Amino acid sequence: MEGQFLLGFDVGSSSVKASLVNADTGVCVASAFYPEKEAPILAVKAGWAEQDPQMWWDNAKLSLKKVMDMAQVKGNDIKAIGISYQMHGLVCVDKSLNVLRPSIIWCDSRAVPYGEKAFGEIGHEQCLSHLLNSPGNFTAAKLAWVKHNEPQIFEQIYKIMLPGDYLAMKLSGVVNTTVSGLSEGMFWDFKEKKPAAFLLDYFGFDHSLIPDIVPTFSVQSEVSAEAAAELGLKPGTPISYRAGDQPNNALSLNVFNPGEIASTAGTSGVVYGVSGEVNYDPKSRVNTFAHVNYSQDTDRLGILLCINGTGILNAWMRRNVAPEGMSYDEMNRLMETVPVGCEGVSVIPFGNGAERVLENQQTDCSIHGINFNKHGKAHLLRAAQEGIVFSFCYGMEIMQQMGMEINKIHAGRANMFLSGIFRDTLAGVSGATIELYDTDGSVGAAKGAGMGCGFYKDHQEAFSTLKQLAVIEPDNSNRAAYLQAYTHWKSRLLQVTDHLK
What we know:
The protein is of the alpha+beta class.
């Protein structure tokens, strides 16, 4: 295939995906991921989750070979490489750039006590005003766990990296990172606009462990001769973009400006909003990181809300409540027979572990207001979807308290966003316009690479060909009913959370 192409990698915990995008047309010409079954996660003890970084490299090679074969593209045709990656992981290498231990990945909870102790001893105000978050279970706390439990390994560490930094290192032989990456690990001081010396000193980390910092959009490094021979790429190909999966998902949906929101609703759900002000939630119910277009001169922060019990609740309802064999489309049509508010039935959807938005309370899922004489399966199914939306809106109110104006929600047409009831309820309660697009993380990373190498002059040009699939405007004629149902749901949630205090 003739033309100029951009390559994007998306390093997830289940697979590594590669996509090739025609730089001139913006069209993705091939995508592939490995492994086809979910990649293994090592759990030596309860609450632990590790992966071998070599596995990411091996899967990146396999997915790249597949897309190059599919598109009949040669290494010389690839103009730049971008990387998206699972956030908050820890990779440690020695001076020979050899990995010292498996990566402690995002869903590993062993470091919680180290982050909580730091939060208390350093002080909440100091942490929140400088880091915008509690040290929590992020990368810095994971490194503290290694220091205290594996001192012989800690002593050998030359540099620490995030998963995306590791893949860039394997491609180039160069170790570096970004401000956005440091912020997600709790290593960036937003007041001083430099690595957080006070946190490094508290944990006893040598400042040299932090790699050199490169701009998110820039020629960060180039493909080495060794990697080029191994992958069939051209030596010197620029690696020109890198971001964690949630900031990158926002980029993929062309979310760059204050007031814009990127949302996903798979097994769990994420609302990621861009703010133009450095701010934080004093209760740490949402997290704040540097967005992809944050700079020393321009504050662009990504405020991240995560809801654990979203698509997993919808799937549970299909298995246990819907008539056997009913498809999701049929479920959605059945729900449409019930009015907004489900005639008083409410579902509190937090049944997939402790929820940060509830200050780490574990409420479990609960159903309220059932009347045996008038409610049936359709009420329960619709109430579940409404409950998921209401949990999103509850978190979005926290964002609004932090100064965000929520005008527009960008999402991919997938998972819960395939449901008309879900979309209409979200627009109806939030008052925001929902725009659905055809894109994914690896395609976004490829376009980010085009921005970083200068092929595109800005994000408007890079995403001018982003395919919009649908626009859902708020139904003002039904707004009162949506808001009444949401208010009723919040009163039920308050009953549940008050009971736990």
